Amino acid sequence: DAVGVLCLLSVAAALDFKYHHAKELEAFLKEVHAAYPSLTHLHSIGRSVEGRDLWVLVLGKFPTHHKIGIPEFKYVANMHGDETVGREILLHLIDFLVTSYGHDPVVTRLLNNTRIHIMPTMNPDGFEATKVPDCYYTRGRYNKNGEDLNRNFPDAFENTNASIQPETRAVMNWIKSETFVLSANLHGGALVASYTFDNGNPVTGSLEGYSRSPDDDVFIHLAKTYSLNHASMYKGTGCDNRQTFPEGITNGYSWYQLEGGMQDYNYIWGQCFEITLELSCCKYPPEDQLEKFWRDNKVALIEYIKQVHLGVKGQVTDKNGNPIPNAIVEAEGRPHVCPYRTNEHGEYFLLLLPGTYVINATVPGYKSMLKTVEIPDNTGNFSALKHDFVFPEVSIRSRGVSCPKTPLYQELQWPSAAVKPTLHVLVLMTIMLVIFK
């Protein structure tokens, strides 16, 4: 209809390839929401030090709330205020998704089966403070309090004693309030997809210069999904002759160690797999390059979102179909130091590559249920394999438990694979004690 066409034109016309400051960015997000009210939900998850809103636009068939079986995905950009490419390409991603819905079959299926959260800027104060754009470094990297937000999260390996900033706290609360499954945070200053862990110790292989998570294979796949679909990242040439990244990916710790990073926090405390995307050699490039950055990243951004449908998902319920929250559901041989638990709807989502796995569902105080599953690659079908667990003899409401915020990897020493299960039991027993205290 004519009105619909006008809506499409007005949003598309409003977004050109230039930098959008706080007021323009807010105006654009509000315009998109007004033009597509049933496909989008706009909300602020908090405020920056200087009081700017931290806007998130949610896109999907059910944008306002979580729907059982539909995974939650997020992109976050501009947490370093002077790294600006991600901020702009996420606005163009929003524009592309809303204008393609109903016309492009892939985008339509993606939005019908995924709830996508987009935060164009986590550090609006830093962006506004960057008066003189620079390819290398400005004080706009930090928030208004002079803190680096990507060193500001709780760390699983050591005490950072960081004073948690308003922007960081807002993101932590956001992660707690949603069942995020997959995420990426967009940076600049290099051209590479970097994956967890960013910090490490001998348990995770730091002595070999690589910090390996229990899901290292999945992270490598996720990083490669982005780099191989990017116009040039996969070439691995980096930004100067000193750095090369084979296939355009790197383990975070191998590249350089950092404490209090957002991707490790997502994985350990948020049950969400996140990678860090470095999208431009120049942190704050001239505006006339923005269109090329969008073209270079467009396919990769979409292909990466599809990976939220990897693996297996389902519900844990009692025999009457009541959901059991806080049940532990993990693949055997992949214990997380904070065991992955079901949400309030009894749902779990496990990102796993195609293959055969034993999935272990545990309700504290009851016998575990084990199920061998053959996982296909379902990303093309926009739905992970579905498997539910029904506990026949239990009808309980297990209380919420949060993992301690203290460094979790300090006590763990895994000298051999044989000890790993026992240590996992120890971790579980510790958590059980916390629950029942």
Description:
It comes from Trogon melanurus. Residues 18-308 form the Peptidase M14 domain. Keywords: Carboxypeptidase, Glycoprotein, Hydrolase, Protease. The active site is at residue 278. With 437 residues, the protein is an alpha/beta fold. The protein has helices at 2-14, 22-35, 85-100, 105-113, 124-129, 166-177, 216-229, 252-255, 262-269, 290-306, 420-436, and strands at residues 40-47, 53-59, 72-77, 115-119, 180-187, 190-195, 249-251, 273-280, 312-318, 328-331, 347-350, 355-362, 369-375, 385-386, 389-391. The strands form 3 sheets. An 8-stranded mixed beta sheet has the order 1-2-4-3-5-8-6-7, sandwiched between helices. Strands 9, 11, 14 and 15 form a 4-stranded mixed beta sheet that branches. A 3-stranded antiparallel beta sheet has the order 10-12-13, with no helix packed on it. It is globular. The model is unreliable at 414-423 and 428-437 (pLDDT under 50).
SSE layout and pairing:
Layout: H1 2-14, H2 22-35, E1 40-47, E2 53-59, E3 72-77, H3 85-100, H4 105-113, E4 115-119, H5 124-129, H6 166-177, E5 180-187, E6 190-195, H7 216-229, E7 249-251, H8 252-255, H9 262-269, E8 273-280, H10 290-306, E9 312-318, E10 328-331, E11 347-350, E12 355-362, E13 369-375, E14 385-386, E15 389-391, H11 420-436
